[in-house]
Amino acid sequence: MSTSPVTALNLCYSYGNQTALNDVSFSVPAGTLFGLLGPNGSGKTTLFRLLATLIPVQSGQLTVCGFDVTTEQSSVRRQLGVTFQSPAVDVRLTVAENLKCHGSIYGLSGTTLSTRVSEILEQFGIADRRKSMVSTLSGGLKRRVELAKGMMHNPQVLLLDEPTSGLDPRARQEFWELVTIQQKSQGTTIIVATHLMPEAELCDRVLLLDRGQTVVEGTPSELQSRLDGDRLSLRL
User: What values do phi and psi take at 67, rounded to 5?
Assistant: First the structure.
């Protein structure tokens, strides 16, 4: 694999007269937990949708594992696992049925599919919920199923869009422990879109966006060091 499984060069995107991305460039080293950080309206959701091939590239270049997002979308999608902010599991199916359906979409079948489902259930600590209807699970367990589903086909790149939205602190911590284990054990390249500073601090590198433009990129410690000496005082 390339040392930069995800590369963007001079990306621009507009919704009519409204600019969502303006000349954004970055590269993500293999095996990195890479954060897209910014407030609402910063452009991170648009960038996430471009990476997930949900909207077409208007200007600039974007590649995933060497495949051009503009001309090789099918190949790009085979490299991706995606966990959206909105739930994407079928609550009318069991945990195992959700995983089987997703694996089937990516060409898994028979013994290979059954074995993979069992592996994923064990890996994400939900083997005891195999036959549980997803509708009966807590928010944290549903997020585990979402993440497990996204990893069914061993993607090279995992995209997470505000993955802990609505979770309580304990469920959020457990979710990130699973993500970190996946990154370290499998070498998965992970890109997370978030507006939460504590989550950004977990990343190896962070791209800070504001109003569609790159503000700064670097490791969390590098970004924090640039603020050395700045203080905010509050009088109550």
Answer: -100, 135
How far is 168 from 233, CA to CA, in rounded Å?
Answer: 29
pLDDT tens string 57-73: 999 999 999 999 999 99
Where helices occur in the chain by DSSP H, the ranges are 44-51, 73-79, 95-105, 110-123, 139-150, 169-186, 197-200, 220-225
Give me the residue label for tokens 């911590």.
Answer: 173
The single residue listed with the structure tokens 């259930």 is: 121
Return the residue matching tokens 């991170």.
44
Rounded alpha-carbon distances, angstroms, from residue 7 to 32, 33, 62, 112, 180: 13, 14, 6, 32, 22
Residue 115: phi and psi, rounded to 5, are: -65, -40
User: pTM for this structure?
Assistant: 0.88
Report whether 132 contacts 95 (CB < 8 A): yes
